[in-house]
Amino acid sequence: MNTEHLSHEPKRPHVFWGLLFPFLEFVLGGILLALLVSHIQERNLHDQQQDADINCMTYADRIQNDLQSDISITDSLEQIIISENGRCDNFYAIARNLNRDSIESIQLAPSGIVSHLYESERPGSSTETLLSSSETEGDMDDAAAFSSKKETQAPSLQKDEVSASANAASEEEPSLDEGALEDATESRQNPYAVYVREHDITTLEGPVQLADGHQGLIARNPVFLSQNGQRTFWGFTIVVIRVPDVFSSSLHSLEYFGYQYRLLKTSSPWDSSTLECSRSQQELIDPVSHWFMLGGDFWELQLMPDNAWATDALSTVVQWAGLVILLLVTGLSYAIFVLNEHKQHLCEISETDPLTGIYNLNGFQKQLSLFLQHHPDQSCILAELDIDNFKFINDLYGHPAGDTALQSLSTALAEFFNTDAIIGRNGGDEFCLFLPEKTRESARPLLQEFCSAPQSFLYKGQKHNFTISMGYAEYPVQAKSHEALIRLADAALYEVKLRGKNGCKAYETDIKEIRTQLGFALNDISANLPCAFLIYRADPENDELLFANHEMLSLTGCTNMEEFFNYTGRHFRSLVRADEFAAVEADIWAQIQADNADSNDYIRFSLVRRDGSTLPVLDHGRIVDNSLYGRVFYVIFTDEEKYVRHYQPKM
User: Is 284 exposed, middle or buried, given 0-12, 13-18 or 19+ CB atoms closer than 10 A?
Assistant: First the structure.
């Protein structure tokens, strides 16, 4: 049978699992949010890198074209020299026409020796220091000046260049001179000149420092002539290009579109180390790059966005919005859990007895109803039970002791019956017990065993026994609903009470279903009994005082039971004057041994009051067998003086 809905006590929600769900929700949500933001950032970085790659490639081509455009001047001069068979008439006019803003100077170096130089007109402009000894111009003839440009005569040559200069100085334009070529040996030429001649390629040397503090690139183009079927070296056409003027337009565009850049080239065609041609101010982080080859060197353009690949606004918005939503969802889940906890707690309070922790009447009936709905044809037993003389326990020991007795009984019920049982407290000292899969025959031994088992509670360190009474009925044989079942069990319990309590009985058809109350209780009787009343143990070795009514407390000068017990030490002998106690005790036990209760007479002695004074009293008592304390005395005390004054016949 599935009895998961049955229990001795209400089920409490597990707080750990309730808090775990919002926590896991927050963790999983955080992971998903992190993955989403990471994906957006990766996508954004990919898009930025892709855009940067495209721009890097585009502007690398533009820079290459910018350089190539200035280098092409050397090609134009080469074609003129070749076409004029080694001469270049009107060099300065041609150079002026070929010149542009990014050009520092245009030079001719026949046989490797600079003979003609056209220099752009700028403050401090000079390229003399850029040329090696093998590329120093000689005296220039017929130098013509003009308004926007100037043709300058080169300074005197060094000692080792005088002979070469003499050969180069003539009134004619520069032409091929074999003697000069022989004098310009490789030992006197710089490595670039040697490399350019041997490989017949145009190179870009630099960047080098110009006289005005700027940087420049030296473009050398070797010129070869065909004479007598042989190809001979004529010299170089040279252009000095200002950096970064040559590609300033491209670099300004990069900055305008939000890029930081760095332009590098190899040191020389034979050296793979790099030199920096130009760069922006910001240090580059993980830049994209594009390589191209020009002038025998490898060039590299590196780009990085101004934001250094920082995430865009979208990922930031998604991150913060997602975090806010996640916190709201987690907070909502936690709020739902808290509300559910409070709801279950309130439901638990409404169905739980706060003193014993078991079901109260409402909770018990709810569980009983649910079980009968699921198992309408199954035999089961409902029992009603209470503590015998519970009012006496409360009045004698106080309500805390009564509460302890109730807790003791609920614990005994839970320990004795299996987990399928439902246990509840109706209120006061009445309990209810439901046993599934039981009939009256199968339940009788179990219920009788529990009722006959000794029950007790501890009060001030002392163990006190009590008994219980129980009545029970069977479903569905005797009742078809849980309401009717409760009424029949209650009627059986009342029958046990009428028969002397401390018993267990099943409902029978001749038992009245309507339970009546006598309407009297011990505290009512003790408070209103018009005489002093006392109960104490009928034991010569232990004359413990058990109870005193209000009249008895007043007679002894006490205001409550605690004062009464404190001054008597809870012993009857403390109430009798010491010199009279032996005679009083002998008289009491003599009457008991006479075995004739009807012949009990009054015993006269001096009652010791709380303040130490004595009062003559008459003691009239009976010995009674009590289920809790064994043999006890019920005693009535009468003030002898008042008795004589009111009842003795007048003489």
Answer: middle
